[in-house]
Amino acid sequence: MSFSNRVATFATVTFALAALIGIGTPGFAQEINRAINVPTLASVPAQATANQPVLTPAIATSAGPTDPLDSSASDDLQNGDTVEYGTLADAVAAQSMPETIADDLQCMAGAIYFESKGEPLTGQLAVAEVILNRTKSGRFPKSVCSVVTQRGQFSFVRGGRVPAIALNKQYRTAVAVARVALADAWDSPASGAMYFHARRVSPSWNRTQVAAIGNHVFYR
């Protein structure tokens, strides 16, 4: 065999051995595997395929409903949310009885109860309107309780305090009306009223009448 033929044979054997060794070597097989496993469209992050952020589970999951009238979230009314009701009765029925009654709510509900528990809901709301208007007037105390317990204003007040009330149906309604009023969730038919009296009396007031509801007459 000539020298050139021996060289060619040696080269052929060398390449064959290299191929066999390469195929049996894990590192080489992994490199081949990497070259074959080209990422598909599904494995490419969303931001690489569209100008949209990738939603994480926390963002993609919608939040559950909250109680609109809860004092922590209370209440739709106290969260700044706008709640629309078909009627005043619907607004009152939607109010829950809180486990703990705050001072202003207790004073307002007490005034509604003692002054108008037998009146239509509009009449009860009008009593609440008088109290709220007084707190904003600059002529009366600035808090609900201070207005309600002010000396000589409401005859049911005893020793500067609102008497205790049994948890009956009429009181629950008074609390609900008070919540509606405090949240300004329904317009009172006695808008602007700051005084009222029972129809059975005729005080010589030189005031403008704004409404007559049930057994009460309301004045500005």
UniProtKB/TrEMBL annotation:
What Gene3D superfamilies does the annotation carry? Cell wall hydrolase SleB, domain 1 (1.10.10.2520)
Q: Which InterPro entries match?
A: Cell_wall_hydrolase_SleB, SleB_dom1
Spans traversing the lipid bilayer: none
Which residue range or ranges hold the Cell wall hydrolase SleB domain?
A: 118-219
Q: Where is this region: Disordered?
A: 58-77
Q: Which Pfam families match?
A: Hydrolase_2
Protein name according to UniProt: Cell wall hydrolase SleB domain-containing protein
